[in-house]
Design a protein that fits this description.
single chain, 4-stranded mixed beta sheet, alpha+beta, 2 domains, 215 residues, 30% strand
């Protein structure tokens, strides 16, 4: 419904932040992001087609979306079986929604949500950078830093994690309130820790930049 789509669009920013996804798209129908699959109804097909039932069933499984859309509206369609046209009735099959590859779908009433789980390199690096930043924020809390305290960060990481951090340097420094984010450990640090971030290793050092000093 239009009002539902409008209401959901107001939550886009919240969804993006909470789910760490790059985008949200609202569509008019679940069919916009799901496929259809045909399942032959042998109790109808058997009496009608006898020995040909298996060939008819195979043709039904191969029906395209346009044909299945017609079936769902109660119309008959014609398929080719061994070079002959065969009329298929809506009762000859069941049409079901089918999740597309890399798409996970949940439905509740009229609401359906699909999440594309395919991860390209950019998304992988974004996820690593976000997880690294979350760890830094936890470290800040553990050290008792005030929420407004600025910090310095020095790190040595695997090539994969280093690439992710450097590609999202602005995000990391803004979220962690870091005035310095350097490759290489700090000479003087309040804390040094070794982490595994989604299987990637990193050693991190942090220090608080106290008011009136540069640390």
């Amino acid at each position: 419904m239009p009002w539902q789509q409008g209401s959901l669009s107001l939550l886009d920013a919240v969804i993006l932040e909470e789910m760490s996804v790059p985008g949200v798209e609202t569509v008019g129908s679940v069919s916009d992001f799901m496929g259809l699959v045909a399942r032959p109804n042998f109790s109808n097909l058997g009496p009608r087609f006898g020995k040909e039932v298996n060939s008819i069933a195979e043709a039904i499984r191969g029906m395209d979306k346009k044909q299945l859309d017609l079936i769902t509206t109660g119309q008959n369609v014609t398929v080719q079986v061994d070079g002959k046209p065969v009329e298929i009735e809506p009762g000859d099959l069941t049409v079901e929604d089918a999740e597309l590859e890399n798409l996970v779908v949940e439905r509740e009433g009229e609401l359906a949500v699909g999440v594309d789980t395919e991860m390209d390199q950019a998304l992988i690096e974004e996820g690593l950078a976000r997880e690294f930043t979350t760890r830094v924020q936890g470290l800040r809390r553990n050290e008792g830093y005030a929420v407004t305290d600025r910090i310095k960060i020095g790190y040595v990481a695997s090539s994969v994690l280093e690439s992710a951090i450097e590609s999202h340097r602005d995000y990391v420094t803004e979220e962690a309130l870091a005035l310095l984010l350097q490759k290489g450990l700090l000479e003087r640090a309040d804390r040094q820790e070794e982490w595994q971030v989604d299987g990637e290793s990193i050693t991190i050092t942090v220090t608080n930049i106290h008011e009136g000093t540069e640390g």
